[in-house]
Amino acid sequence: MLNAEQLRDAPLNAQVEFWNRWNAEGREAAIAQVSVDQRDVIVGWLEGMGRRDLKILEVGCGAGWLCGSLTRYGSLTATDLSNEVLQRAAKRLPDVKFIAGDFMSLDFESSGYDVVVSLEVLSHVADQPAFIRKMSSLLRPGGFLMLATQNRPQLERNDIPNPKPGQIRLWVDRHELAGLIGAELEIRSLFSLTPQCNRGVLRVINSSKLHSAMATVGLGQIGRAVKRLQENTWLGWTLMCLAQKPQAAPAE
């Protein structure tokens, strides 16, 4: 078992190499249900804003799989460590401004964005409070942070290999996430999403084959109810958080 310091210790060049490889082998090839569900929540939040002129920043965009959905709502800047992957994404998505590099070292317009989106990045950052502070500093007063991260108690119920060289892994639970984000922003919504488990009773309950069979015999509603129950009891793979930067105080 790796200790906390080992999980935090990964040179930047090793991280770049890992994420270039991971995205090339993963997100450039296929999008899993966990990511689909995250995308649908983000799109729902953006739809609720009722605007198409937003200035959006995506932090940790990976292969750019979400960018096509985000550009429907305004101008998009997207950044990631995966420089090789971003070169390919830029050819597919010429309307997106891609910036490769370490987010914590890059310069962006302070208080310049209506929305900052970050999916499954927080757990791969060594200094999580500083990461949240920087994203908050880039939001305009009244702007929104839309964030997804792995739900530690649920992932610990799964059999997951140890981190590979260059992979930082610092999962959080809902209380830790609320503390991190609540220190900078006003939390509007926090919930778990997408029950998923590869061992024990939850593996059977969440089996896609079981749910397909239930739908075939007209019991799909029961399967959906079980899914909602698990999400409501924090058994989702993902923690989703919508948070807002406080409006500037009126001048006296």
TrEMBL record:
It comes from the Bacteria. Residues 57-146 form the Methyltransferase type domain. Keywords: Methyltransferase, Transferase. CDD domains: AdoMet_MTases (cd02440). InterPro entries: Methyltransf_11, SAM-dependent_MTases_sf. GO terms for molecular function: S-adenosylmethionine-dependent methyltransferase activity. GO terms for biological process: methylation. This is Methyltransferase domain-containing protein.
